Structure formats: C-alpha cells, structure tokens
Amino acid sequence: MERIPTSQGHIPFEIPGKSDIPCSTYYKIFGDLSGGVPPVVVLHGGPGGGHEYLLSFAELWPLYGLPVVFYDQIGCGASTRLPQTAGDAGFWQESLFIAELDNLLDHLKLRDGPGFHLLGQSWGGMLGAAFAASRPRGLQRLVLASGLASMELSVQSIQLRRTELPVDVQRVLDKCVQEADYESPAYREALAVFHKMFVCRAEPVPAELMLSLQHLSEDRTVYGTMYGPSVLNCNGSLRSWTSIPRLPQITAPTLVYNGEYDTSHDIGQEPFFELIPRVRWITFQGGSHMCHLDGGGLSERVLKVVGEFLMQHKAVEKAATYPG
Q1: Percentage, residues of the chain above pLDDT 90
Q2: Mean pLDDT within 81-92
Q3: CA-wise closest residue to 292 among 280, 304, 308, 281
Q4: Which of 48, 95, 191, 219 has the highest Cβ tally under 10 A?
C-alpha cells in the first residue's frame, strides 16, 4: 500500500562556509505537527542511502499518533546532489550533516513546544548519537537502530560477519578486496550472499530498500567519499570517526537495537549500552541490519518496540502533570 505524506517540500540549506552553492533538503511529513505530540525525525543510513527504506516507520502515525518526519540528507535522494565534491574528504564530514539537521529542526520549528524524538538507522544512528551528545534543545527520546559507536567497531563488526560466510564466498571477497575489484560478477555474487545473510534477510528484497540501493549506485559521491569503495573497505573520511568519548553527554532516554545477524554486531553496540546514562538495548533474534524490513513478524515487532518506547515520554509527562 502506498503511503501518502501529509506534506512535503524542500528546505533551503546554506552549507557553512559555502554560501556560493545553493542547496536544499527534501523532506516529507506523515501526521500533524501541530497536535502537541513530539514528532519522530528519522535519520537514514548510507551515508547517501535516502529515506525510502525507512518508510515503514511512517506507521508510527496511525498506530501511535506520533507524527514522522523523513528527509534526504544532502548529496542524495531528492535533496541537492553535489557530484563536484566527490573525493573531498574535508567537505564530507559529520559537521555538515549536523548543520543540515539543525536547519531542518529550525525550519519546521520542532525545538519548542513538545520537542521531538530522533530515530537514526545505521549511519543515521551514528549521526543521531553525535547530535544527541550536544544536548540539543527539544530532544525528548533517542532511538539508535543498528548504529555503531565508532568506525573502528564497524570495521571489526563486518570482519566478524565475513568469517560467518561460506568459505568459498570468503575467498572470493578476500581476493576481490585485495585486487580492488568491486565491479566483477564474482564480487557482486559474493556480496549478494553477504547482503542476504546480514543486511536484509527479507525475500524478495523490499521495493523501498531497492530504491535506497539505487541511490547509492547512481551517485557514489557521498558513500564513496565518506565510507569507501565497498562496505568491505572503509578508507573514507569517516574512517577515524567515533562517538565514544561523547556518549556520556547524552541525557535523552535512549533505545538501542540491532539484529542477531546484523552487520552492526553487538561489539558496536556495547559502548552505547555502557556509556549512555539512560539506555535500553534490544537484540532482535533472527534480525539483520534491516530488522524493520525483515519478515517472520520482525518488522511488526520492531515497530511495536519503537512505538512503545517513544510513547513512554507521554506517560512520564502525565505523571509529572498529575503527581497524585
């Protein structure tokens, strides 16, 4: 069933120090932002993956009365593309995406009134943790969905998953990475096995995920510069990124989740659980990196856990208002 947004549009975005490059951020909203309920701002992964693969979280509106705001981060999807910046590691940094998120929150006036929740998936979880550590005004609750506390732990997580692949697939991937061969049929076939085991276990691959994969293949500017030529070779501007020293500064109640077979392995979640003061961690059995898209009832369970966690804000608010 097609999900029809309540509203959508483009927000002008002036890149800090780059006022000569006119940019805009595409967004879409499901639900009513004027209803006195904190909306959920969703941060997609990639980097450069676009918002479509997370659209199942739009169901938070009809099921829980939580408005949901999606947007395409700069450089991908329906937001301004910047192919001329490919390879510019100084440009493609966390600070750019923090500035864009600040701009979105200000434009939609989400800091005041009931405030807002953040849900970040994969790279979006990394961005969400960094943003939350600055204690932004209005942030109520934080969901880190298959995020990673550092890129070092991300690389270790993927390496651990590679050892769980069939031996013949491991050999093909090892050879292709060593030879920087990321285009051959052999590499693509072996990577498909990796994706099927650890990235998304749903069959067939959901259409919304195919759209995000299409974004990544059509324009490699963001992913190629920030991550690298392959999920198996991180040599981009994020390679030394970490949120770990900042995690104790997060004051918002936080839900961390990942999947049993997730590329975001448990080792990448442990710093979140150990260092964020108010945190809950759930690992979904049978789940992949895309737990919210997996079959067998997993997608419904993820939505229920996230919805109930975010609605606890309302229960706390009521308790504060009516102490008797």
Answers
A1: 89
A2: 96
A3: 304
A4: 48
Residue 259 has pLDDT above 70, yes or no: yes
Query: ω into residue 204 within 30 of 0, thus cis?
Result: yes
CA distance 232 to 238: 14
Please give the C-alpha separations between residue 225 and each of 13, 22, 88, 124, 236, in angstroms, as whole numbers: 21, 21, 7, 16, 5
Helix (H, G, I), strand (E, B) or coil at 117: strand
Reported as a single tens digit per residue, the pLDDT across 132-152 is: 999 999 999 999 999 999 999
* Residue 316 CB partners (closer than 8 Å, separation 6+): none
Distance CA 131, CA 31 (A): 24
Q: Say yes or no to pLDDT of 317 above 70.
A: no
Confidence of residue 5 (pLDDT cuts 50, 70, 90): confident
pLDDT grade for 19, boundaries at 50, 70 and 90: confident
Which pair of structure tokens corresponds to residue 26? Answer: 């595409």
**Helix ranges restricted to H, the chain:** 60-64, 94-107, 123-132, 151-162, 167-178, 185-194, 207-218, 221-226, 270-275, 298-321
Handedness of CA 103, 105, 108, 109 (dihedral sign): negative
Q: What share of the chain is helix, strand, coil (3-state, %, to 5)?
A: 45, 15, 40
CB neighbour class for 275 (10 Å; exposed up to 12, middle 13-18, buried from 19): middle
Mean of the pLDDT values across residues 289-305? 97
| Catalytic positions | 122, 262, 289
Give the Cα separation of 198 and 110 in Å (integer). 35
